[in-house]
User: What shape does this take?
Amino acid sequence: MRIVARATVNAADPGTSRSAATFPTITVLADGTLLASYSIGSTKDSDDVTIELRASRDGGSTWGPARSPFESTVHGRRGSLKYAPITRLDGDHLIIVTLWIDREAFPGQPLFNGATEGCLPMAILLADSFDAGATWTPWRVVPMPADVGPPSLTNAIVRFPSGRLLLSVETNKTYLDDSPWFQRVVHAGSDDGGATWSTPVTVVSDPSGRIANWDQRGAVAQDGRLVSFAWVYDFEAVAYRNILRRISTDEGRTFGEAVDLGFTDQPGHPALLADGRVVLAWVDRFGTRSIRARRAAAIDAPFAPESEVVLYKAPPLAAQAGVSSDTTGDALVDMQAWSYGLAYAEALPGGDVGVVHYALGPEGGLDIRWVRLGVDDE
Assistant: This one.
């Protein structure tokens, strides 16, 4: 693979409420327009974090003005919006899902409690657009059972050839809960376009509680199979492990055996091309300190090392806090200091792949960056 072009989707404005942009995503609309979403605020975890949208009509070379069409107060409670991937359904119909964080429950406190490993109250919200993102319906809350705890959103809603929609959520502990954390991945399905959702069922877990499968990033192949990539964390060793790939042949109800990809650590959303090939970008934060991408011939094929391309290399001054932290709580808090990551790839019209990620801005703050990849070797 090769890098065809680069651009800045959103430039940081240090020292303002638009200083830190993270959690970028891209969606290809029916007319070929690219729609990017990302969270933005004074810091990565400030009360004022909200969602912005920008569009590109020239394949990612330039990006239009930022729009903030979403309300962050839900049922009368003040909150912040973090991560909002968009899925295109039919024509100009889009569905957006976002993670809402309650900022009134523990005023002034960070998202993660370093002492307990719990997190602030959260909710999963949905909205629809029937005009390609120009306007949006009000938020509606996806009900979650109490045993999920504060639900983490880790992927866009996926759509199967049957029309069924799937929502992937990860469980958490409440803020003051100091009991052991048994992290699980649960799936909920919808057969009415997202109006109602089934009761979530556990699809990935470690009953021993040692291993967490964080940040499930998934997409549906043309044959209807769902492929998912996990950021694997070892609670006992306080360390990240190699990325695991899982494939579901029953619309996300169950997964087959996990496959170790042989590289670490945080996977991005995969780009699935029309010919079956897959491009996966990932963050190697504690080895090469870079964002990289590889290509596979199919969702169940190995990722070829010779296809690897470096999308971003952290400068020496951007040294990150590491998983040499003494506790998982420390590692969770350290995430707020990271200055690059969260790659999100998508197949583009014409056969290329677009990747967005966040990175340290030239004058500080956090930018959203765009990279266009040519998938075929020269």
Remarks:
- DSSP finds one helix and 28 strands in the chain.
- Residues 318-324 have pLDDT under 50 and may be disordered.
